[in-house]
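Order emerges. One example.
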Amino acid sequence: MNVYEGNDVRQAKIQTVEPLMPEPSIFEVELSIGKQNKNKNKKLPGIYQIPGELIKAGGRAICGEIHKLIISIWNKEELPEEWKESIIVTFFKKGDTTDCNN
């Protein structure tokens, strides 16, 4: 059941009784962590210098804490400001170094 707020349907704020998508499960978190660094065991720690291998080595304890963090963010519906920043690092494959496709 939807509840409409506001005088104009175009400006209505729609609230639903049940969430549009279920919260991420601990299984999904474990699956995602398990997929980290599968390709050639690349060690790209990101801006916080935490290698994926370290997170994997933490096992269920780390998965549980990461899951709690994700659920907290899910319920607040807002990403931490730090997560909105990124560092892009390019890696040369082979061929012409001036060609961006390489």
About this structure: The chain is about 35% helix and 10% strand.
